[in-house]
Write a structure and sequence with these properties.
Elements: E1 2-4, E2 7-9, H1 12-22, H2 39-44, E3 51-53, E4 59-64, E5 67-73, H3 79-90, E6 98-102, E7 107-111, E8 136-137, E9 145-146, E10 156-160, E11 163-168, E12 173-176, E13 182-185, E14 199-202, E15 216-222, H4 224-228, E16 247-254, E17 267-269, H5 274-284, E18 307-308
Length: 309
């Protein structure tokens, strides 16, 4: 039995209604807690300091007949490979090469389509092979925003420098992960057989089994649809069997080489901010009206990495 204003009520429903009616002016019934912000709301409330301008000197611009793909490089994780890719760009190595592979739910890869090694394009000044840069030391100069949700492939995962990473705190090592849109360097069986002359982009479900087996050098920040919508190769592993299927590379340049009239500055959301942590939470617990269950968990490669003009 509920007592309200000293009047006993036999009906709980009537009791609550009576109490609400008799509340003093200005006193409200207990209000439901406000729903956490959605991702658009988080981004709308972000501050200029939450964003970081892409450095054109550390940005690759791939031009194909179907459009332009812009990739942010990661020299903090693969300095030697990034430097060699820049050297290959400087000698125009990639011009007239081609996309040679488009494997469904996996990768798009470009390189020299010539099967005869004697006919392949030669490197002028860049290095022909590099030791792998699969991981790097954990250090204070590159803080990691960790996820609390766990991971099947690493002790810890999170984000550092704008990229998805895995961390082994016991070993003091961290590495980039094969999430959608990540850019890697092709290699043969020998660990030092890659130099950046062949690269690939993940266009499917994250192939995390490749982590620590291939050097990752960056991620696509704009134009991923140019690659993900290419016709799939019919050969083994999605390679194109007919040379007429090759997608010719018009050019591969650094952003700093693109004429200002053709260049649009881009900003990426910094991953070491409170705003980014709020974004993660907005995707972990979906409170939009469509969702029947907010889930309460999120995988590393399901966290968006926003980019804006």
């Amino acid at each position: 039995m509920i007592i309200c204003e000293d009047y006993p009520m036999k009906s709980t429903v009537l009791s609550i209604a009576a109490c609400l009616l008799l509340l003093p002016t200005g006193v409200n019934a207990q209000e439901a807690p406000a729903a956490p912000p959605t991702m658009p709301e988080v981004l709308a409330n972000s501050k200029p300091a939450d964003w970081q301008r892409l450095d054109p000197a550390d940005t690759l611009v791939l031009d194909l007949a179907g459009g332009r793909v812009i990739m942010a490089l990661a020299p903090e994780f693969a300095p030697e490979h990034v430097a060699n890719i820049k050297a290959l760009v400087a000698e125009r190595f990639y011009d007239d090469l081609a996309v040679v592979r488009s494997q469904d739910n996996y990768v798009v890869q470009w390189g020299d389509p010539a099967e005869d090694p004697a006919e392949r394009k030669t490197v002028k000044k860049a290095r022909t092979s590099l030791a792998p840069e699969f991981d790097r030391a954990v250090s204070g100069d590159l803080p990691v925003t960790l996820l609390a949700d766990g991971d099947a492939y690493a002790p810890q995962v999170g984000f550092a420098g704008g990229f998805p990473v895995a961390v082994d705190p016991a070993a003091g090592r961290m590495w980039l992960t094969h999430c959608y849109g990540m850019v890697g360097v092709g290699r043969d069986v020998s660990l030092d057989s890659g130099n950046g002359g062949e690269m690939y982009v993940v266009i499917g479900h994250a192939p995390r089994h490749l982590d620590l087996n291939v050097t990752l050098v960056g991620r696509v920040v704009q134009g991923i649809e140019v690659l993900s919508t290419l016709p799939r190769g019919t050969g083994d592993l999605g390679f194109y069997e007919d040379p007429e299927q090759f997608v010719e590379i018009a050019s591969l340049r650094l952003g700093s080489e693109i004429p200002k009239a053709e260049w649009q500055d881009l900003e990426v959301l910094r991953t070491d901010t409170a705003t980014f942590k709020a974004l993660i939470e907005s995707r972990r617990n979906r409170h939009e009206s469509w969702f029947a269950s907010p889930t309460g968990h999120i995988g590393l490669c399901n966290v968006p990495l926003p980019v804006r003009p």
